[in-house]
Amino acid sequence: xxxxxxxxxxxxxxxxxxxxxxxxxxxxxxxxxxxxxxxxxxxxxxxxxxxxxxxxxxxxxxxxxxxxxxxxxxxxxxxxxxxxxxxxxxxxxxxxxxxxxxxxxxxxxxxxxxxxxxxxxxxxxxxxxxxxxxxxxxxxxxxxxxxxxxxxxxxxxxxxxxxxxxxxxxxxxxxxxxxxxxxxxxxxxxxxxxxxxxxxxxxxxxxxxxxxxxxxxxxxxxxxxxxxxxxxxxxxxxxxxxxxxxxxxxxxxxxxxxxxxxxxxxxxxxxxxxxxxxxxxxxxxxxxxxxxxxxxxxxxxxxxxxxxxxxxxxxxxxxxxxxxxxxxxxxxxxxxxxxxxxxxxxxxxxxxxxxxxxxxxxxxxxxxxxxxxxxxxxxxxxxxxxxxxxxxxxxxxxxxxxxxxxxxxxxxxxxxxxxxxxxxxxxxxxxxxxxxxxxxxxxxxxxxxxxxxxxxxxxxxxxxxxx
Length: 467
Known about the structure:
- This protein is α/β, with parallel strands linked by helices.
- It is 34% helix and 22% strand.
- The chain has 14 helices and 15 strands.
């Protein structure tokens, strides 16, 4: 019996100790679902190409409102229109940001030329934006033609005094990127009224900066230097008139008679229109920008009505697809881009003062033509993060990620170390119509316009999900 009592406790103790302690269920890590970007890109493209409203919106802006020059009733109508469009697509955060704009009135203007003792001939012309006028009086003088900086430097002191200088400097047709060609010509000091005024000249006439071969004059903005003793009138003429004038000047003396009523009347306020979809994760900002104003004589379809409606289309698409953005997606429609740029400066100052964290800024101001890529104005490290995304963009004809300049209204944000990008499009036709009365709604192709909005939305999507 003793053995039995001894064995039993040992058996029981062995049985009890052999029971395993209950274990806690293992903590499961959240499964990270890898996003299929090809599918997401297709959803964005399908939504915009099938249901996009950008083209109809552009028609309303250009045909319904027309010219929307700074400090005019047309601009204020455009601002009201933009707010209505943003509200209609379900954007709740919309506000106005006041910016200064110069009050410049073109008034009546005319240019006549006379070869030798012949009759006066009327020439189509456009005053430079913000140019001084002639006070409504005729300014008459002999024309002297200059085609290069070396020609200007070769002239002796006094040869241009009391003359009207004609700068016959065409855009270089051998530069395939027309934006590069335009900028190369536009930066010439020959097109500076201040430089020409220092020679004693009375006025400046330039050959229009355009790729077209018609006789439509194209406007340009003028800046006078603070130390200018005289602010001379400046104007542009079409390329055919420029070619004819060149031929005349090679044979005989030519006189011009200019009459411009252009005048400046101080400043007023024009608002930037700002709208955003708040971020679900944080308040970091991805901003899209386009200029809302146009020149005073045209519809401003390609410059930059297309950019305005594309920015609105990005927000509409995000809302329509129910995409929950991590960061705040913001659109800024800038005031006073054409003749001053104060809208862009006000926004940059606002960002700096508020110390808002902007992680990306995308500009569009190239005419709504077929998208070809994005110019990435940012650090090499940031550029390398975007390069692998090319595979997703290629099916949409977007392949160029090599350019490095973003020069539109987002450009002041570069000083705040914000990565910039600009939509790159096929610009071969852009400078045919740029800054002219030919910049009209009928020049815009619906599919090209919508494809640009597709590329912009896809890029914003990628930045939002990956940065």
